[in-house]
Please model this.
Amino acid sequence: MTVEWVHPGLLLIVGAWVLPFLKGEVKRAAMLILPAAALIDCLLMTPGTYGVTRFLGQDLVFGRADRLSLVFSYVFSLMAFLGMVYALHVEDDSQHVAALTYAGGALGVTFAGDFLSLYVFWELMAISSALLVLLRRESSAVAAGFRYLLVHIFGGLILLGGIVLHWSETGSLAFGDMGAYSGGMAWALILVAFLLNAAVPPLGAWLSDAYPEATVTGAVFMTAFTTKSAVYALIRGFAGTELLVWLGAAMAVYGVVYAVLENDARRLLAYHIISQVGYMVCGVGIGTALATNGATAHAFAHILYKALLFMGAGAVLQTTGLRKLSEMGGLYKTMPVTLGLYMIGAFAISAVPLFSGFVSKSMVIAAAGEVHRPVIFLMLTLASAGTFLHTGLKLPYYMFFGKDSGRRSQEPPRNMLVAMGLAAVACVLIGVFPGLLYERLPNPVDFVPYTLQHVTSTLGMLGFTALGFFLLLKHLDPEPTISLDTDWFYRRGSAGVMELVQGPLARLEFGFVGEIYEFVIRRPVLGAANFFRKLDTFVVDSAIVGVGRSTQTLSQVLKTMVSGNAQHYGLIMAAGILILLALAIFIQ
Amino acid sequence: MNFLQKQLEDPVRFARIKRWFYAGLSVVALAEIVLPRIFHGGESHFSFEDFPAWGSLYGFVSCVAIIVVSKLIGKLWLMRREDYYDR
Model:
């Protein structure tokens, strides 16, 4: 039997279980070979439909390979490889298995041609990524991991509800453009589930809640897969949905606002994931060829530079144990390589010319210009300045420069630096040779990022953002606070609900409802029961006793007659006959 | 003592970096005003993009607006003590 097609996701999910049985160098080799094999598998795949299985009268398509799914599969498997390089030193098999399963789930979602297989991989991602949080094994991580899991189970149930509804309405499980069902309940449920995974506010607080609590290496995987597979699903199903234009633009600004207030380094970066995914969601909403290309390109570039940024912050966390900006400072003296590599990621996310963000983000912004949406254009450009302000200036300033905290550390393990180096190379490569990325985008690209106007205005914008930063520097000092987000509703809001239940609601129950119950139900019922009891004792019982007594009396009388003596019976018979005769004679 | 340390800890060199930074800013802003007039390579979608040094201006305004507005929202509403959720 020849195998025509191997699912790259399945390769990772099944292959991951080999790791616990291997040791030392062999294990480390396997950790790299698995994602590398998945990457090669994706690169060799030609567009087509593979892995079709008949189930419940439906075609389950595990391998829909077209230009859109292929470009996402390249970056997902590449990211799995970079993540494994970064995690090579970690001696915790469960983390590796969870991470590979998670990446495999993302590839499964990418290649799923029907809703049912999409759903299965969707849930697999939720569970395996929650493990990456839980496996940090600290109480705050376990709590955040469970919140993360609950939110995603909730989202998964919404998705399942939407899928079942869609199936019953259309009789088909095929996953394609949902535009024809726009406004329906199934359409809305599926959209909400996708938006939840894309971390669109108000459904996105799980991201900034959980990612900073994940393990150092796990967080790197998490930045890539959940939100970007949701972006893929949105491009596939909901391109051109007007609502997404506004949600995306609002999201881009929202992440920036929270980043100003944030003190935890990795949480600041997490808010910038939300901000960056905003560009993609907005691009999906605009829905033109340029915009969906932009959303795809930005997802591709974003995965690589955001992983690099999280790797940098993770390296600092790993070597110093510090996560709060207010406690860091002066690390450039001992971690110059980490700083340099981090800055490449920071320039990429800030869309500095010659770095990847410049050639991808500008596609989305240009798409907003092309369809003439000035407000969206201005919001996205503003968020762009905010991105440079935080990721490019504030975070490195307080982490590596700023007030010297006196902490001394060393560079992280070599494999972490190698992973960062590879990601940095990818960021620069895409920025310098955008054609490498553009030729793989779903639609033909007719977009030139390096125009005179674009380069000068971007440089001007970045330069003067830096000026604003240095002028307002003293107002930007990180403060040891946390910021309220929509996770308040299930973290404190739920406590409020409990207080409401235990306080007023309990008093209402025992006092008011209880009293009413007492008078309306309990007392009448007891009264009626009492009445029936009396009726029972005095009427029914005495009737039964009376019947018994009279029967007894009768039998006493009969006992004297029924003596069992034949002579008595003969005498009574003779007497009877005499009486009958007498009667016969007298009546005549 | 690495290269960065040398640049940042010597006040003379640091002042020099500062001067270069401001010089760079003026060059960029100037280029943004002058170059489009010479080359006419503009593909601007909106009229406001043709405003002289639009990128520099909007970048500066955005930066200040983000910091001021966010801090305001944060102070008045969103920022809480770190143990807010643990109490």
User: Anything to note?
Assistant: Strands of chain A lie at 48-55, 58-65, 481-483.
